[in-house]
Amino acid sequence: MFWESQKQLEELVCQLVSWDSRTGTEGEVLFPFKLKDELAKLEYFEQHPEYIALHDSGRNRNGLSALYKHGSASRTIILMSHFDTVHTKEFGSNSHLAFSPHELGNRFKEIADDFPEEVRADILSGDYLFGRGTMDMKMGIALHMHLVEKAIAHDWPINLLLLTVPDEEVDSAGMRAAVGHLEDLAYAHGLDYALFLNSEPSFTQYPDDPNYYFYSGTIGKIMPSVLFYGVETHVGEPLRGLNAHFMASFLNQQMEFSNVFSETAYGEKTPLPVTLKYYDMKADYSAQTSNHAASLYNVFVMEQNADDIFSKFHHLVEETMAQCQNHYEAICRRENTRPAGGIRTMSYQSLHDYMLKKYGQVKIDEIITQYTARDDLDDREKSMHITNRMITYCKELVPLAVTLFVPPYYPAVNASEDPLVRSISGLVQEFLDTHYGIMPKEIHYFNGISDASYVTYDSHDDSWETYKTNTPVWGKTYTIPFESMQNLQVPHINIGPFGKDPHKLTERLHKQSGYEITPKLLEAVVKHCMTVTV
């Protein structure tokens, strides 16, 4: 067997790490082809080459699926992972070693005194494998390959579908594209999906956290945003206009750390909102005030949907713009000057409908195409430029604050009450306690944001219509397969190896967890799914 022993698993994860697959690079494009060749070493896939497939994820990227299909089984576990990693600028002069774990570990030993005590101790202990992707999440892919090989060798009476995708670290384009492929594969091969088994690593909850966590759900993330369009003026006559930055300053203060969107479930609480990006859309410098600025906010969700968030957000913007107007008018009275106008608040959908009546669909399509076709803008910038351009055709509405959504959107997913997940939870705790003296803790909402957001969706929720109609790039450069996600309705659990410092210079994998503990635990989980009836 190729990936059975601890030594073989270490060699495999080092090989996967060496295939540099940073998001947006040529390495991300090439990775699934290399993985396909590696999986093809197994005799099973030599005999069934049709069970390995590449799936288009856009921008020349592909996801990969590899199916182990047992003749008498329909129950199927989807082993899901992502192969892209974040970039390596923080490695500095050691960048050339970022994807060479053994060499990087040796280099860190030479400069161990440069690191904080906890990191230095881990370097010198030899218990950790350092390098970009060791923890997040090349070890997870290696563990899934190990499971597939073992299932083949021992003829396990269950189907395993290894699915690994690109782009998880940015917009999850890989997983959003994969949902449709999962439907196709189920139909083509008669698969009954019973479980999504993700193996993202166990993330620490606080500095120096020694606990091992597994996850029965994943937190959601949504980005309500505003385009502020004021009234331009010369800086020598500031009150003849209304500066967009003045408008934005009121909302930024209200949104940052706001508890309006806070949720608590299973004793866990959503992190507070922050302004993720704020920028002036005025490209040049001049003595003219800026009449358009954009604010993008990060809001985490557990049980709230897009409709809930947009309703609260729009109401907050209305209230805040009223406060801004009152403050502005008070200044005008103090300076004995007439205000430049009253601030309106509109949703993007309302702006779209207003322009539709005034100019028709052809003009709207022209504006949307003009910006979605540009490769120099990301989806967030495209959204703001589309909105901004629409307002220029409707200047009678300004000063104006337009509420909208910008990508990405990660719906919250929680399977904590699912009977199969509950039985697996009990297995995980008993297995780790009995065999290793580890008392694992269940987290109901994975706090790292993950592709698991797209594996299922509340079958009764239609709030995604609110998201679609208020996202300017929807259907052009960004989509979410909500209906297909609703069709899946498959429980999810995340069980992965222990590590530390994801996305940092000192990202590292705990070797025993990666090579010994988690492989045995995942095997126990799969065998449990073979026999349990829930």
Protein model, in words:
The chain is built from 16 helices and 21 strands. By secondary structure, the chain is α/β, with parallel strands linked by helices. It folds into two domains: 6-219 and 411-455 and 490-531, Aminopeptidase; 224-405, Alpha-Beta Plaits (2-Layer Sandwich). A six-stranded mixed sheet has the order 1-2-5-3-6-19, sandwiched between helices. Strands 9, 10, 13, 14, 15 and 16 form a six-stranded mixed sheet that branches. Strands 4-21-20 form a three-stranded antiparallel sheet, sandwiched between helices. The mean pLDDT is 95. Keywords: Hydrolase.
The overall pLDDT average reads 95
How is the biggest beta sheet arranged? Answer: 6 strands, mixed
CATH class of the largest domain: Alpha Beta
Distance between the termini: 33 Å
User: Helix proportion of residues, in percent?
Assistant: 40-55%
Can you count the helices? 16
CATH superfamily of the largest domain: Zn peptidases
Which descriptors would you attach to this protein?
alpha/beta, globular, 16 helices, 6-stranded mixed β-sheet, Aminopeptidase, Alpha-Beta Plaits
Blueprint of the fold:
Elements: H1 6-18, H2 26-39, H3 43-47, E1 52-58, E2 61-68, E3 75-82, H4 101-110, H5 117-125, E4 128-130, H6 134-154, E5 159-165, H7 173-189, E6 192-198, E7 213-215, E8 217-218, E9 220-222, E10 224-229, H8 244-255, E11 264-265, E12 268-269, E13 274-280, E14 292-301, H9 306-334, E15 344-347, H10 348-359, H11 361-372, H12 379-392, E16 400-405, E17 413-414, H13 419-436, E18 441-443, H14 464-469, H15 482-488, E19 492-494, E20 499-500, E21 508-510, H16 511-531
